[in-house]
Amino acid sequence: METLRRVADLRRVLAAFRARGETLGLVPTMGALHAGHMALVARAKETCARVVVSIFVNPAQFGPNEDLGGYPRDEAGDTRKLAAAGVDVVYAPPVAEMYGEGFSTSVRVTGLTEGLCGAFRPVHFEGVATVVTKLLLQALPDVAFFGEKDYQQLRVVERLVRDLDIPVRIEGVATVREADGLALSSRNRYLSEPERCIAPLLYRTLCSAAEGLKRAKGAPEIAAALEKAKRDLLAGGFSSVDYFELRDAETLAPVARIGRPARLLAAARLGATRLIDNVPVPA
Amino acid sequence: METLRRVADLRRVLAAFRARGETLGLVPTMGALHAGHMALVARAKETCARVVVSIFVNPAQFGPNEDLGGYPRDEAGDTRKLAAAGVDVVYAPPVAEMYGEGFSTSVRVTGLTEGLCGAFRPVHFEGVATVVTKLLLQALPDVAFFGEKDYQQLRVVERLVRDLDIPVRIEGVATVREADGLALSSRNRYLSEPERCIAPLLYRTLCSAAEGLKRAKGAPEIAAALEKAKRDLLAGGFSSVDYFELRDAETLAPVARIGRPARLLAAARLGATRLIDNVPVPA
Known about the structure:
The structure is a homodimer.
Chain A: E1 2-4, H1 7-19, E2 24-29, H2 35-47, E3 50-55, H3 75-84, E4 89-91, H4 95-98, E5 105-109, H5 117-120, H6 124-139, E6 143-147, H7 151-164, E7 169-173, H8 193-198, H9 201-213, H10 219-235, E8 240-248, E9 262-270, E10 273-281
Parallel strand pairs in A: 1-4, 2-3, 2-6, 3-4, 6-7
Antiparallel strand pairs in A: 8-9, 9-10
Helix pairs in contact in A: 6-7, 9-10
């Protein structure tokens, strides 16, 4: 397994794979890899002859009051895991390689990015859309893999790929959870022991609300179920709830009655840590 | 020569060229082709084994009060010229192929787009950046050709290609002029006969100002030369001058003294028609 830090080196190595007719999978990550990332890698290995994993903590997707400085980094540990998983190339560019002198271009997706996490993290999705576009165009993979845990991000990436005609297939991979249901996240390591005990309530609340919503007749019942879920989270020890919303599974438009596949999405804070999760609500 | 209207067809035909190891040149146009476009085509033919010319009048780069509705269209005439020039593929997608249902992504370049034409056409460069990104990613050419007449656009395209890591080389091609110096433009056909007589004054004024600026010692002399040029245009029959500015040839930053290669750029109106042009001012 090679670790590359320059676009030119990445392209040279990938061109050799391509010249041999080998398909390429890309798994974009910010490092601090856990079993959720490794599920993306495993899916990429199943699907593609060659697998590149990028590790880049993207400053552009963090707001000024967010956790860029403290975001966990462990390239040595990440590299061991990826080598053991049979990854071909780790691409870990420095910030200056991604954002060179005079950098001044951004990719913006309207609509999909406006509610949910977009409402609480104003620069986030423009940063995500720009860096994902760059990574996809640097590697030009056949398939790129994104976790369903970041469901809004997955939909934003699918949208920009379609809109900008990036020649890649995007594949979403199901969220990996701890035994108690907590979605794996690099940010889980911020949780204190008592917070870690409370954290699984987010998923349990999503599941029970999704179950109740299947029988909801219209907007008032949906609104009541969502309000009850928020109260349950606060009663169970969450500090605040950024959102707990039922959205169309594809367009992320608010849902007034169950008819098409929907998704229930939530973000809530446990002390200083912000957790997100989501579950499907079949039509 | 084939005329294609679907991305999927374009990609299929271009993949066959690529499989034979043939290099590909793309000339993006809005049609209404004149000798300026044909110079881009000729340069593409010199440089690349295969040449695609796109014809797409991009609604996204026209403001609400601009000339989208009246913009000249002549696909049959364009096709004859391109066939005679030995072009391999004309790509003329309908608007719905470029901007499908739910389209919501845009590419934005800050800095370079903020003055000059950007100040007078607020949505223009975001529309240009988005459609050029799409065309480049649809065709994935080795080289794409843009005219220096739209100098700010050329710099914006170079910038977004570098920033988004689009794997293409951008080549600027010198402006083609009428015998009297008027830069060729699809919009010249809007000019009445008396306006057509006045029009070459734009280029003559740019040339004489550039000559004078070579000897300018500092900001006050530069400002005086630019003010005189504007007065000359108005005195010569132009209705108004959007801008007449000296900028750094690469960054387009305002220039306070001659030191690095600079560019003198102007936009002025003759009745209802807006003309733009530019000339180099060597260091």
